[in-house]
Design brief:
Elements (H helix, E strand, L loop, with lengths): L9 E6 H12 L6 E7 L2 H5 L5 E4 L2 H4 L8 H10 L1 H8 L4 E7 L4 H15 L3 E8 L6 H17 L2 E6 L3 H4 L6 H24 L8 H8 L3 E2 L1 E8 L3 H10 L14 E8 L5 H12 L7 E8 L6 E9 L11 H5 L15 H10 L10 H57 L1
Parallel strand pairs: 1-2, 1-4, 2-3, 4-5, 5-6, 6-7, 9-10
Antiparallel strand pairs: 8-11, 9-11
């Protein structure tokens, strides 16, 4: 008899027309472990969605005819339908909110739904889009104001810039094709994250890991990539580090990363090291990286990465660190941030064959775990001793300063007594 695995309940909520389009695209794929909810002030758009919980926002306010591009109406409509929203999201541990900013419903209702989820203790992640410049200054201004509200209403959010579609697609692409490509990018990223939760691999990631990265994370990068053939490890690492549609664009400034490496049973241990080292290079010295692996025969010849980067310094790039470049062996096999010294790395590499696979050498990973943990503890102890010494110096300086003040006071008192 197989043991039943208790998985977290996850839902994707499409808010407004743009959000609902993303939900429709996701429904075309075989996504395991995801439910769908759609919410709109336009009753007609809801009628064209199947296999989803439907919320007709603000029935009394809009009569089902939409928000007319007014975010205030979108906001009031969500407030009117608060009970329905709470009922729809309460069964879930995590929700993804997809919405287009700049219109009425997505701009106004998106932040309300995010806040409700957060207040209910549901992990909330927003994936929102910013309009094209040609859509006009008013729509852009509405979007920017809505984005500011949305930021604080969810645990984590990702902004996709429609304007960047011009940079990555041919000039002759149609608007429908461009939007379809953008929806595809979002869908693939979300699928990669949900696969982390529902799949069982050699090194497992669980919902607690996901929550640790996303809870109150602010702006995030969410991306996935797949490569095969020569230099596949290098190529897949480069691909997953960049998402041209994102407001942030890359993981520069992130202080924590969660990543799943999937592929066939032919994935080599040195390829795992190459990927984790490439990602680690973009993190600060004490940045946290959690990763899991899931290898199966049907993925033979391929490497797939799903990545979440959180704690981003918005608009800032991480300065290059020479020390970190020299110690590319700093990478993580478990759920702890640890470092492997160069001399140990070299010794290990002598014992790893060029043809060794990740699944064959899984026991070697366990040997790394023990050493990495001991090394990290030793480093932390040294850091604590350093802090204690600095504290002693500060206390000594304070005592000397007080003694000097007391001595000066006595001298002044003596001078006054002579006069």
């Amino acid at each position: 008899m197989m043991t039943e695995i208790n998985l977290p309940k996850i839902a994707v909520i499409g808010v407004g027309g743009a959000g609902i389009n993303i939900v429709k695209h996701m429904q075309e794929l075989d996504l395991k472990g995801i439910d769908f909810i759609v919410a709109n002030t336009d009753a007609q758009s809801l009628a064209h969605v199947e296999n989803a919980t439907k919320i007709n926002l603000g029935k009394n306010i809009t009569q089902g005819f939409g928000a007319g591009g007014d975010p205030i109406i979108g906001e009031k409509s969500a407030e009117e339908s608060m009970d329905e929203i709470i009922e729809a999201i309460s069964p879930y541990q995590m929700i993804f909110i997809t919405a287009g900013m700049g219109g009425g419903t997505g701009s106004g209702a998106g932040s309300i739904i995010g806040k409700v989820a957060k207040d209910q203790g549901v992990l909330s992640v927003g994936i929102i889009t910013r309009p094209f410049e040609f859509e006009g200054r008013k729509r852009t201004a509405v979007a920017d104001e809505a984005i500011e509200k949305f930021r604080s209403s969810v645990d984590a959010y990702m902004i996709l810039q429609n304007e960047k579609l011009f940079e990555i697609f041919d000039d002759d692409i149609t608007q429908l094709e461009a939007f379809h490509k953008a929806d595809e990018l979002i869908t693939n990223s979300l699928k990669g994250i949900t696969d982390i939760i529902v799949s069982h691999g050699q090194i497992n990631l669980d919902f607690a890991d996901l929550r640790a990265i996303l809870k109150d994370a602010g702006q995030i990068v969410l991306n996935s990539a797949i490569e095969e053939g020569e230099d596949r490890a290098k190529k897949v690492a480069e691909s997953v580090l960049e998402n041209p549609l994102l407001d942030q664009g890359n993981i520069a400034g992130a202080n924590q990363v969660l990543m799943q490496i999937s592929g066939g049973n032919d994935v080599k241990l040195k390829e795992i090291k190459e990927i984790t080292s490439a990602i680690r290079e973009h993190l600060p010295q004490f940045g946290n990286m959690i990763f899991g692996t899931n290898f199966k025969e049907e993925m033979h010849g391929k490497i797939h990465i799903s990545l979440i980067a959180g704690g981003l310094n918005e608009g800032q790039s991480m300065p290059e660190k020479e020390d970190e470049k020299k110690t590319l062996s700093s990478f993580i096999f478990s759920k702890k941030t640890t470092v492997i010294p160069e001399k140990i790395e070299e010794k290990k590499e002598e014992t790893i064959s060029e043809t060794t696979t990740a699944s064959e050498d899984f026991n070697d990973l366990k040997k790394f775990f023990a050493f990495e943990t001991e090394t990290k503890i030793e480093e932390e102890n040294k850091e604590q001793e350093k802090l204690k010494f600095q504290l002693k110096l500060k206390n000594l300086a304070k005592r000397l300063f007080l003694k000097r003040l007391i001595a000066m006071k006595k001298i002044l008192q003596m001078n006054q007594s002579f006069h």
